[in-house]
Amino acid sequence: MPSPESPSQVLVADASSGRIPVGETVVVKGWVRSRRESKAGGGLCFVTVHDGSCFDPIQVVARPALANFESEVLHLTTGCSVVVTGTLVESRGKGQATEIQADEVVVVGWVEDPETYPVAPKQHSFEYLREVAHLRPRTNTFGAVTRVRHTLAMSLHRFFDERGFWWVHTPIITANDAEGAGAMFRVSTLDVANGHVDFAQDFFGRETHLTVSGQLNVEAYCLAMSRVYTFGPTFRAENSNTARHLAEFWMVEPEIAFADLSDNADLAEACLKYVVKAVLEERGDDMAFFAERIDAGCIDRLEGLVASEFERMDYRDAVAALTKAVDDSVAFEFPVEWGMDLQSEHERYLTEQLVGRPVVVMNYPKDIKAFYMRINDDGRTVAAMDVLAPGIGEIIGGSQREERLDVLDGRIDELGLDRDAYWWYRDLRRYGTVPHAGFGLGFERTVAYITGMANVRDVIPFPRTPRNADF
RNA sequence: UCCGGGGUAGCUCAAUCGGCAGAGCACCGGCCUGUUAAGCCGUUUGUUGUGGGUUCGAGUCCCACCCCCGGAGCCA
Length: 471
Known about the structure:
Layout: H1 12-17, E1 25-38, E2 44-50, E3 58-62, E4 81-90, E5 98-109, H2 126-131, H3 140-162, E6 166-167, E7 173-174, E8 186-187, E9 208-210, H4 215-225, E10 227-235, E11 248-257, H5 261-282, H6 284-294, H7 298-307, E12 311-314, H8 315-327, H9 344-355, E13 359-365, E14 381-389, E15 393-400, H10 405-414, H11 423-430, E16 436-442, H12 443-451
Parallel strand pairs: 3-5, 6-10, 12-13
Antiparallel strand pairs: 1-2, 1-4, 2-3, 4-5, 7-9, 8-9, 10-11, 11-16, 13-14, 14-15, 15-16
This protein binds one RNA strand of 76 nucleotides through strand 1, strand 2, helix 2, strand 11 and strand 15.
């Protein structure tokens, strides 16, 4: 697509996709991925250039007639930035349909010391690449992850937009002091060097933290706008060191009015299927790479998810199935009994062994769930649900919310929470309350699930984890 | 935080019983070739995570600490 700055500039994606006709003069701007030489036909040099627009780089063919062939082109190394002007032609070699016969190669930026350039054209471990997070987007894998992540985000917005949802920007800084979703990061402008802290003197005149969920706030908008969702960063100060946890991550939280748990599960299933389908359709080149190099079964798994019905399973039945598994001598580390929370091993068994596709487990014991979840008629379970996916475990957690003020107050008291702290949340039950429900979808977990990447630290640009906030 | 594994060249790793610290890749040079994870030959590359201890001698054994990875917990 021509830009005003440079009339013939094209993206690599356009040049290699057939959108630009062969014979056109084009300008490509990007970074060198590799260079190869051949002495054939008087000598020539193949330079592959990527600009992030698609998975495959484009091959530039440079000939000795170029003014800077000896002095510069032959010295290009991985990572150099270049502007190439030339003719788009059908490739004479295998491996690509089209390539650029270069009329001019301008080197914009050299790699200062090729020997120590951190991203060599070879396989690196993901652990190592985390140490060079500013350069890892130049690799195949992280370019692909970045594009899939983008497509997933865009398709989520599209899914909700098409269904009449409003995107609500809930606050990052919160004074909700007991959201019940884990340890929080404090936000303060006070100098705490002397130990004693008087929050009345702090910036907001009270103790504040980074949000652990936009749910409570978005409920207020739900009870006015009917269908709403949040999509933004979330912060947890837990000392979690796993492939599934980040201190800063992104979460999608839809909330629907006049809806129950079943509506909620329907929404979750439709949402996951929609976005997975979108990635399969729009990022075929990147998904082919993930299937080839990262996770051979990822495309089959996704196509299966789109085609199949999610299994709905009551918590009671999940426990029964697990008990039966124990009887059939499946070995679990943790005992199975009604009232327990499902352990990772139990979730994996249900979704991977028993069912082989995503499972929605519903109606958990109230004692292991949050205060805002709606008490069922049996008085001992709540209308909560978890969506479990093979390979990643819990990918969605949600519930119908308690809309009855007296019942909500009872739960707040029962758990030793302070009613006054939830004054505005309780107001929503005093003024035109309605049944409503919602869920949280972990964005990074979803990207990991789709791509087959094993660690959420490798599907977010600059991961924040305990002892790591570099970059 | 708990359990387990690990930290050696720019990267990926090896190093026997405690006995001269090595290979592949990358980089650089040469040869070959419409090449494409190219191939062949050659050069260069070290505070063995940090601090202490044992020993004639420590990458290797002992102690402490730091960091990383995997699993668990917490959860999305």
